[in-house]
Amino acid sequence: MAADRLYLDHAATTPMSSAAQAAMVGAMAGWANPSSPHADGRAARATLEDARRRIAAALGWDGHVIFTSGASEAIAIGLTRAKAGRIVTSPVEHDAVLRVTKGADRLAVDGDGIVQGSRDSSLRWDDVILAIQHVNNETGVIQPLDRMDRNGAILFADCAQSAGKLVLPDADMIAISAHKFGGPPGIGALLLRDLALIEPSGGQEQGYRAGTENLPAILSMAAALEAREDWLGRAAEMRARLDAGIEAAGGIIVARDAPRLPVIASYRMPGLSARAQLIQFDLKGISVSAGSACSSGSLKTSHVLGAMGWDDDAAAQVVRVSFGPQTCDNDVDRFLSVWTAMAEKARP
User: Fold this and answer.
1) Residue 131 phi/psi, 5° resolution?
2) What is the pLDDT of residues 242-279, one digit of tens each?
3) E strand or H helix at 213
4) Which of 15, 169, 228, 248 could bridge 145 with an S-S bond, Cβ 3.0-4.6 Å?
5) 3-state secondary structure (DSSP) of residue 163
6) Looking at 294, 309, 326, 347, which residue is catalytic?
């Protein structure tokens, strides 16, 4: 990225850490197919299985790890091949979940986007997979998954935004993506308490995901997790500084009083569309986004804000800011200066 640009779109992707880059370069210098029976293949298999153990240990996970191309594929595998009669989810999930759960029962959310505990008595909850995002990718709101009354349901947690930052929830299936915590793009995993939860497909990854494993990317993901630092306290201070500045300038904080991951926040600038904001921020050398990168190319109205009760006009004025490990106070001040000037011009 250009040295003079300010990157505040880490929820879309976080640049690879130096440890992740070094691990990938080292692995690419010489590796073999882990499925090959010769000595080189066996060595690659041993390295792969060691990386699997390292990733599980770094995440505090004591179940199985199935490597995928990212969280979207992990979600698709887990939800389309789950041994469950019905899927129950929420209207504030990532598009990757909504795409594969069309027609599913959806629990209501409150004004902060927190899933409500209402239950349909006609559902057999011992034959249900409950798919709920741990941290919302647009608002940063943290779902209290460990306090949720599952009533026998299988819990699938989309942890793309929380893995590597928060302790994983007590779920049966978890989706993660390396490029959200400083690893490379194109690699992620489906974490499973029990392989029997999903139907096998044949091929590699113990018969649950076909295709030659991307060993350099897997080693890079392991390195990124092991090298990560606890910077959430510093991020919380920076977001509190940003929140206060936004409110002082007449902005509105999405889910202001809800529990939020401190690296993600969304703000409404009354009087100016998100599209116009993104253009002006970009011209000032600042990268932010409007909602999820998987759908923001079209800048469609956020289904997350709609489910939270926002009308289309208000939702269309919201942008997302997300921090990375290198974000500092000066970055927050630079963004606030531009935001404040734009807000003043946008006032009627």
Assistant:
1) -105, 110
2) 999 999 999 999 999 999 999 999 999 999 999 999 99
3) none
4) 169
5) coil
6) 294
